[in-house]
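Message: Just now I want nothing more than another pair of eyes on a protein record. I am handing you a single protein, as its sequence and its fold in token form. As I understand it, each token names a local backbone shape. Take your time, and here it is.
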Amino acid sequence: MKIMGAQEIMEMIPNRYPICYIDYVDELEPGERILATKNVTINESFFRGHFPGDPVMPSALIIETLAQAASILILKSPEFAGKTAYLGAIRDADFQQKVRPGDVLKLEIQMVKKRANVGIVQTTAQVDGATAVAAELMFVVEETGEKV
């Protein structure tokens, strides 16, 4: 079930094509948890160079996709509405399997801790129920347009 589509997502986070990676939000508990979806297609621009003949979604872009889903969770929290969330740190990233064209990434983000304008989320990207990537991400939230 889609509770947020691409247009609503782009109204919330600053990412645009070709680097807006969230297709829709399946579930959302503001300030607590989000489940979002990224449909990985052969048309993604990064597949032209990563790697010809053996297309694999770059690990850094999977982390970016998780960070975008986390941004939606964070910015749906009442205290952060109308602000911008920035990725501050990546901890304990564990890359367990390749992500390829045709895969559907299910992104689950859990809020672990937040204080003032800083917080930590636990993230998992899965394909067909198997974990592709798990990582703890730290975020910083600022007024839109402020320098971090």
